[in-house]
Specification:
The protein is α/β, with parallel strands linked by helices. It is built from 12 helices and 15 strands. The protein has 2 domains: about 110 residues, Aspartate Aminotransferase, domain 1 (Alpha-Beta Complex); about 250 residues, Aspartate Aminotransferase, domain 2, CATH 3.40.640. Helix 5 packs parallel to helix 6 and helix 10 packs parallel to helix 12. It is globular. The structure holds pyridoxal-5'-phosphate.
Length: about 375
């Protein structure tokens, strides 16, 4: 006898800033038999997973693999491997996640220069040009593609050009864009990128797809100091995930890969590729427009400049208790949406349309539920 009841999580509709609802197909993959992390059958699945990650990222980078850990582990992996104590770096801040990049960079011992704009705004090419001219010794520029805290979508190609013209590496947070917005790692010359599984890939949280360009690998290989994180040291991790460039099969144990999560990610990426990356992006956009017009017809307004399809940041009307509405959506309708963060705390809702959750059915269900809550709260 135990005092505990069996696990029985509710079937929520997850429309917050992540996690998104996981399709049964991925849950089934997660429940497949666990293999050993050096079993040739498993290595085959893992290699396919890395290849599908390249396909979705739009890259041929050999060093593309899933970091064991959520998006923040991916962020940390990029920073600890590409920054040495004493390096100068530049970071763009327009919300929560740019601020976290800065914190990570400082912990790596870097001198960090910031390009800051108000929350919700995006960073201009001119602002980057000014920053790289002012700090020519900087080795890297970090930026967030899809700022989940505000709904701002950052354009990247022009900025990448400015960064490379200055001879610096370009590092991008794509946690809320991979699988939901256009993202072209090679065409946009991104040197280091990290994402997460539980946003637009609709996989449970637990892995962070990352990819490093040959220039980024060169910077890592030229390090004079060891990476201070043992767990996230890519010089060791790559011997396992990519065979270190040696003949395939030469896989060195570093840590036990989260086998079943890799199955889940493999299934999630397969679903993305079956749908087609471009079609998937188009679906997110179409569903976002439908949500937007429905909300606006109800008299609600987006936070100005909020243009992400995957994360819709909507102002809470005057006099409405934003937390009470979210509470009612959850308890009466089993729908989860997010509250505002930072400067938008208490003043906005964050509605995710991510992956499996980006459907007409979810949009219409939420609109009807929200209408009810607003009329009677
Ligand atoms: C969610 C998110 C992260 C952090 O990912 P976790 O999986 O929560 O660790 C980082 N950056 C952005 C833009 C995010 O939306």
């Amino acid at each position: 006898m135990t005092p505990y009841a069996s696990l029985d999580p509710r079937q929520r509709i997850l429309m917050g800033p992540g996690p998104s609802t996981v399709p049964n197909r991925i849950l089934r993959a997660l429940g497949s038999p666990t293999l050993g992390h050096l079993d040739p059958q498993y290595i085959g699945y893992m290699d396919e997973t890395c290849q599908m990650m390249r396909d979705v990222f739009g890259t041929t980078n050999p060093l593309t693999f899933p970091v064991s850990g959520t998006g923040m582990a991916g962020m940390e992996a990029v920073m600890v491997n590409l920054i040495e104590p004493g390096d100068e770096v530049i970071v763009c801040i327009n919300g929560v996640f740019g601020g976290r990049m800065k914190d990570n960079m400082q912990r790596c011992g870097a001198t960090v220069h910031t390009v800051e704009v108000p929350w919700g705004k995006t960073i201009s090419e001119e602002a980057i040009a000014e920053a790289v001219a002012k700090h020519p010794r900087a080795t890297m520029v970090g930026i967030v593609h899809a700022e989940t805290s505000t709904g701002a979508l950052q354009s990247l190609p022009e900025i990448s050009q400015v960064v490379h013209d200055a001879g610096m590496l370009f590092a991008v947070d794509a946690v809320t864009s991979m699988g939901g917005h256009e993202l072209k790692v090679d065409d946009w010359q991104i040197d280091a990128i990290y994402s997460g599984t539980q946003k637009c890939l609709s996989c449970p949280p637990g892995l962070s797809p990352v990819s490093f360009s040959p220039a980024a690998v060169e910077k890592m290989d030229a390090r004079k100091t060891p990476v201070q994180s043992w767990y996230l040291d890519v010089s060791m991790l790559r011997n396992y995930y990519t065979g270190g460039g040696a003949s395939s099969g030469a896989r060195a144990y570093h840590h036990t890969a989260p086998i079943n999560m890799i199955y889940a990610l493999r299934e999630a990426l397969m679903i993305v590729l079956e749908e087609g990356v471009d079609q998937r992006v188009a679906r997110h956009h179409a569903v976002h427009l439908e949500l937007r017009s429905g909300l606006e017809a109800m008299g609600l307004k987006y936070i100005p400049d909020c243009s992400l399809a995957t994360l819709n940041c909507v102002a809470t009307p005057q006099g409405v208790d934003e937390a009470a509405v979210r509470q009612r959506l959850l308890t009466e309708y089993d729908i989860e949406i997010g509250g505002g963060l930072g400067v938008f705390a208490g003043k906005a809702w964050r509605i995710g349309l991510m992956g499996f959750g980006a459907t007409k059915r979810n949009v219409q269900t939420l609109l009807a539920a929200l209408k009810d809550c607003l009329e009677t709260t």
